[in-house]
Amino acid sequence: MSNCVLKLEHLHKSFGGVEAVKDFSCTVDEGQIVAIIGPNGAGKTTIFNLISKIYQPDRGTLALGGVDITRKSQIETARMGVSRTFQNTRLFAGLNVLDNVKVALDFDGKYSLLEAMFLLPRRWKREKETTRRAMECLELLNLAQYAQTRPSNLPYGIQRRVEIARALVSNPKVLMLDEPAAGLNPEEVFQLVDFIREIHGKYPQLAILVIEHRMDLVMNLSDYIYVQDFGETIARGLPADIQNDPLVLKAYLGEEE
Ligand SMILES: Nc1ncnc2c1ncn2[C@@H]1O[C@H](COP(=O)(O)OP(=O)(O)OP(=O)(O)O)[C@@H](O)[C@H]1O
Ligand SMILES: [Mg+2]
């Protein structure tokens, strides 16, 4: 029996007159890779923004591991195990790779500013622990060699991986990747797909949601695919079924009926 991690039911989100997401439902199981594909403006990123609580849905519900998170805040949702990357790289230019990853561990810090000032030994201990966890994650993902390097001095493909490492270091239940291959050259795209497979192998419980613009990329990566167009799910199914779906081809190629 599969174990459902994320369950979205009848989500709606409008911006003014634009219905960005219309009645979106989806389940993601433990260890599953689910892709959301569709043309520009289809509402893919909005779905991620609803899951990570950047936006609240107008209607519909979200549950994480059976717990209703519909009204939870962004920070609560993150603490409960929802992690993501963004369509545009958002690494801190002034920090090295290690510190960029450590940033993601600071939100669950239990220390107030006062404690930080007066309980230095405890703070040091925590700092050591944060460094250890971040290094462990970088090592697991074969990125340790870049720990002391600034992201801007690294190829874009590596920067993307560092971002993913940062999303993973908090040990989430759900990892959401928004167009991780955007801006990569063909060689880097291949490597990224391998990297995601590697993560899948090393974090077998982790549910991965990936947004992609390009169909070919997700075809042999994902277990299940949702195809969005103008806010609606126009198809859903196994990669092989999606590939030959006439509605999908029409959305992508803009064919006449
Ligand atoms: N904060 C916002 N305010 C107003 N409109 C928005 C907002 N966010 C998204 N939209 C609109 O909602 C629709 C869906 O946008 P969204 O970014 O979710 O699409 P997408 O599928 O991720 O597209 P892309 O492939 O270009 O990234 C678009 O028409 C967009 O302009
Ligand atoms: Mg988008």
Could you give a short description of this structure?
With 257 residues, the chain is α/β, with parallel strands linked by helices.
List the keywords.
257 residues, alpha/beta, six-stranded mixed β-sheet, 10 helices, 10 strands, 37% helix, globular, binds adenosine-5'-triphosphate, binds magnesium ion
Your description of this structure?
This protein is α/β, with parallel strands linked by helices. It has one domain: 3-Layer(aba) Sandwich (Rossmann fold), CATH 3.40.50.300. The chain is built from ten helices and ten strands. The strands form two sheets. Strands 6-7-8-3-9-10 form a six-stranded mixed β-sheet, with helices on both faces. A four-stranded antiparallel β-sheet has the order 2-1-4-5, covered by helices on one side. Strand 7, helix 7 and strand 8 form a beta-alpha-beta unit. Helix 6 runs parallel beside helix 7. The longest helix is centred in the middle third of the chain and has 21 residues. The mean pLDDT is 90. Adenosine-5'-triphosphate (ATP) binds next to strand 2 and helix 1.
Helix content: 25-40%
- The dominant shape is globular
- Kindly report the name of the CATH homologous superfamily: P-loop containing nucleotide triphosphate hydrolases
Give the strand line-up of the largest sheet: 6-7-8-3-9-10
Q: What is the beta-strand fraction? A: 15-25%
Number of H- or I-type helical stretches: 10
Q: What's the overall average pLDDT, rounded?
A: 90
How would you characterize the largest beta sheet? 6 strands, mixed
Spatial gap, N to C terminus:
41 Å
Detail the poorly predicted runs: none
Order of helices and strands: EEEHEEHEHHHHEHEHEEHH
Identify the CATH architecture.
3-Layer(aba) Sandwich
Bound small molecules, deduplicated: adenosine-5'-triphosphate, magnesium ion
CATH class: Alpha Beta
Taking Cα atoms only, what radius of gyration do you get, to the nearest Å?
Answer: 19 Å
Q: Count the strands?
A: 10
The number of domains is 1
